[in-house]
Amino acid sequence: MGFFTRTAMDMLMKTTHPEINRRQCWNLHPHRKPCTECKDICPYGEQIFTRPNLVKDWDPCTECGLCVSACRSGCIIPSPEQVQRDTSAADTDNDTIWIGCEKSTRKNSMVRTCISALTWETLAYLALNKKIVLDLTPCGECENDLCAAQLRKELTRLVDFFGQPMFEARFTLAYEPDEALYHVKELSRREMFEQVSHGSKSGTKKLLQMLPGLHSEDDGGVDFRLLLHQRTKQLKAAMDTPLKYGYYLPNFTDKCFGCGKCEKACRAGALKLEDLPDGQTRIVITPWKCSECEVCVASCSNHGIDGMKLRQLTTLGPVSVHKCTKTLCKECGKPIAPGSVDGVCTVCRIKARTKKRQEEAAARAKQLREEREAKKAAEEAAKAAAEAGADAAETAVQTAAAPAETAAAGSVITALTPEKAAPAALDETPAAAPENTAEKDVPDTPKND
């Protein structure tokens, strides 16, 4: 890479640590056990990550790349500096790239914290340009089980991608200190200038891809896979019989009816549904965008995706993997399963069931309200009748009691009258006696004849 290219690249690289696209994280999808691979494999995981996909502080980050290679959904985006550092070895003058870790005592052209810090896509991209020697001499004494497991997974994936014969032709696994030793290829003056010119052009091309406005945000987390895709296209155009590469893609079955749940669940945009003129729908997958996270498998409720299947591809460009005929819901027009009895989707069925229950509840509430009103009216009528009967009875009692009271009053008056007359007679008797006495004492006057 030329001086200008390197200087311009350094100026454009504002970030020296990975970035996280949280919307693509596996933990945002339904699952039983949360994924903590990025936090577990990072040497400073407790200081950097508050929890998976949420960063507390990037300052302790050494940009080793372990979290990028370990992320199962590809939501951790490597920095431009890391992409350039990991892929620049493909532009060197040597025909072989020696890769080792910091614990190795051998001389290597690429030294990383761990070989597993390089993603399998990066190793595949380098292997399509140069032969690779992996220095595994320190791995036997390494105590980091997570890195060892990650390296085994990457090597297995590389075997699936290249196939066993091609993997053995492009990769050399050095387990002994004296195996596949490092050496420098001697170049003539002309070859040296050709390598410098080629490296400068390659670096400028990568620089232009990273310029603002030319680098899509959707492709931010797939830089290594994009480079791998571009390299496979170059080899396909240059070869009469193109090579085939193994890539895991969703295995769609006849149960798929094109509902589109998998397309919505795929945050990387690797899966698309396209309507054809003949009324069918085909599912197109872009392998270089697919991180093989299996989120689409988990999102399919009709079991239309039977896991991931290894397919042999000549490039990592879009490929059609399934075709189906849609059966649409007669209510909303969304795709439904072909064997649907009532011809409506689940949402419309739930809406109809809910509407029916609401109508039944409203009718039942109306009936209960009418019953309560009738009962209340009956109670009020009974109460009014009882009050009227009570008033009538009271009136009758009062009417019947009036003569009795009158008779009783007359009896009382009658009973009281002799008692009042007797004293009067006693009072009158002494007064009459003098009159009689006077009459007796007065002499009779003689009548004149």
TrEMBL record:
Annotated segments matching region Disordered: 361-449
Signal sequence annotation: none
Entry-linked InterPro entries: 4Fe4S_Fe-S-bd
Gene3D superfamilies the UniProt entry points to: 3.30.70.20
Pfam short name (any one): Fer4_7
Sequence ranges of Low complexity compositional bias: 383-409, 421-436
Biased composition (Basic and acidic residues): 361-382, 437-449
Domain spans labelled 4Fe-4S ferredoxin-type: 52-81, 246-276, 281-311
PROSITE patterns: 4FE4S_FER_2 (PS51379)
Name used for this protein in its record: 4Fe-4S binding domain protein
